[in-house]
Every structure is written in C-alpha cells, then in structure tokens.
Amino acid sequence: MARIFRPSQQFTDNQVTDESVYNQRRQLIKTLGFVGAGALLMPSAGAVDWFSSSKKTDMPQLRPLKHTKPAEYQSSETLTPFDKVTTHNNFYEFGTDKSDPAKRASGFAVSPWTLTVDGLVEQPFTLGLEDLDKKFSLQERIYRLRCVEAWSMVIPWLGFELGSLLEQAQPLSAARFVAFETLYDPQRMPGQANRFIGGGIDYPYVEGLTLQEAMHPLTILATGLYGKSLPPQNGAPVRLVVPWKYGFKSIKSIVRIRLTDKQPPTTWNRLAPQEYGFYANVNPDVDHPRWSQASERRITDGGLLARNRIPTRLFNGYEEVAPLYKNLDLRKNY
Ligand SMILES: Nc1nc2c(c(=O)[nH]1)N[C@H]1C(S)=C(S)[C@@H](COP(=O)(O)O)O[C@H]1N2
Ligand SMILES: [Mo]
Asked: Is the pLDDT of residue 46 over 50?
C-alpha cells in the first residue's frame, strides 16, 4: 500500500503505504543492506490492479452450499461483485500483491482438512471439514469488510457463529482468549517457502480474540461466499470473519483454535506493534501512524474512476459491540 504521502491531499489507498511493501522493504534492508535500496523505489504493483481486473484467473470448482438468509443479516448496501471479492485479496501465503492469491492459490487443495479446538477446554476435538458442514447450519451474513489499508467491501459470507463451535468444546473458566492458526505447509503455500513471496512474515499466520469477542454473535467462521464454498484466495476451507475489526484479524485457512488464559501473539502486531494492535477495532478517530483511517474506498464495480470514498464508522458501523469495550481506552488499545 505504499506511496508518497502528500499531507495536503485527500488520502486514497493508492497513496497509502501498504503492509506488503513495508515488509518487503524491511526484509530487503535486512537481507541486502544498502544494496537493496534501489528496490525500495519500485512502486507497489497493487496500484495497477484496477487496470487488469478483467483478466481471467482459474477458479476451482466451488460447491453450492445450503444456507438460510436471516433477515437481520441481509443488507441494502451494494454488494462488492464476486469478481472483485475473489481477485483483490490479502493472503500473503500466496504473495503480497492483491492479484497474487487468485493466481497462486487456484490449485490449493483443501480436502482433506482438519480443524482442532483445544487448550483450556473440557472437551478438545478435531473435526474433518465434512463434519463441520454436517454439525453447523450455514447462514448468509452480509458484512462490511474494512481493511486497515483503507479500502472496504460488502461480502455475502456463508458461515456459522464461532460461539457455537466453542461451546461444543466447553471452555474452562480460566479461558480468557482464543488463538487462531493458519495452515503451515510451505509446499502448498509458496509465501511460506520464500520470504520475498510471503512478505517477510513469520508463518504460520496467527490471530487472536478475547473470549468475549469470540463468543459475540457477529463473529463467524465462514466456509463460503456468494452461495458457494470459499474460493482458496478467500481462505478456504474455513476462515474467521470479525466484521467490526480491521480485515487482518479475519484469519484464513484455519487449522487450529486454542483457548488460553493469556493474550496470544498476533501476526501483524508482531511485525509492527506500533502500527497494528491486538484489538484492531475499526476506528475513524485513531489513525494508522502512516495514514488516516477517517475514510475508506468502498470497492463496488467502478474501479478507479468511481467516486466511492465514504466515511469510516466506529466499529465499522456495528455499534452493538460497543459494550465489549466500555472499560477500555480505544486509543491505547488500538
Ligand atoms: N492467513 C492469512 N489470513 C489473512 C491474511 C493473510 O495474509 N493470511 N490477510 C488478512 C487481511 S489484511 C485481510 S484485509 C483479509 C482479506 O480477506 P479477503 O481477501 O477475503 O477479502 O484477510 C486477512 N486474513
Ligand atoms: Mo487487511
């Protein structure tokens, strides 16, 4: 996301420095020393994405999934079209450019897959993905997704409440946090085998929530979008969606969920703690150190030419989560 910043101008996410470029720079500096400096002048390829969005990428067969459409989770907002949702992605295991995951993850095999729930629980378990489909009925949830890079989408997810999965494990009273882990398999995830592809992240990608946040009814595990199973680039076969937090909290391709008594480490906080906090609640009043969070570019179907900059809302507009933070300084706990 990284660009020259002119303070007098209105922000667009093309001017903002993005996570990938930032980390590639850090990595280059570490690896190459001063010789690497020439590479720092390379523009992020993300900026040109919009001119090539009509290009076709292979998409594996997506299964239609049975689901209900509860009225309270439908929306009158314009949905982000399927082709944007599936070609403009952050999934560094498959590359740091927005268009990389659609290309590099198309052959990512997600069957068989197991998901383990353990840690401070009475009944740890491991489920095959088939069991997951059988045990939990899917709902369509139309949620806004606000990336920390100041773009946003409106996505019709298919999923179920994370709380209903955690309840099956019977959390112990000592459990206060929930830690999530993405698959670690460098043979299948090229960014894990090569630090230049993977943006210098220490894999596996990890995330965390407080137990209260995890049990909130808005927090879901998604196994599909637009009526069908998740495309690999969106985090197949199962990913977290926490709509009131910046997108990086919504960890993809999860293999393990562990309940703990301590705040777990999280990938972006580990990389740049002064820029990415544990909470990462969407908040227009708390700027990223390198850009404003007051507004966002809503990705609909207009690309660069559309005037689609909109104000960002506290908790991404999901005010019902405010009680979770009534005793917390949201500026300190960013
Ligand atoms: N494992 C993993 N999960 C991840 C990421 C990632 O790089 N790796 N990127 C995050 C970020 S920054 C965002 S904005 C969302 C993007 O989800 P989408 O590509 O489905 O829109 O996924 C999040 N989950
Ligand atoms: Mo993001």
From this structure: no
Query: Domain containing 85 — which CATH number?
Result: 3.90.420.10
Residue 20 lies in a domain: no
Question: Nearest C-alpha to atom 15 of ligand 1 is from which residue?
Answer: 247
| Cα of 34 from ligand 1 centre, angstroms | 31
Tally of structural domains, the chain? 1
Spatial CA neighbour of 254 closest among 285, 228, 290, 230 = 230
Q: Which ligand is nearest the CA of 150, by number?
A: 2
Q: Which of 17, 23, 85, 91 to mutate to test the pocket of ligand 1 (most atoms within 8 A of CB)?
A: 91
* pLDDT surpassing 60 at residue 257: yes
Predicted model pTM: 0.87
Average pLDDT over residues 61-65: 94
Residue 93 CB less than 6 A away from ligand 1 = yes
Structural domain containing residue 280: 25-325
The pLDDT assigned to 26 comes to 55
What average pLDDT does range 108-113 have in this prediction? 95
Is position 253 within any domain? yes
**Of residues 133 and 122, which shows the higher confidence score?**
122
Residue 17 lies in a domain: no
Residue-wise pLDDT for 233-256, tens only, equals: 999 999 999 999 999 999 999 999
- Rounded CA-CA distance 86/153 in Å is 11
Residue 300 has pLDDT above 60, yes or no: yes
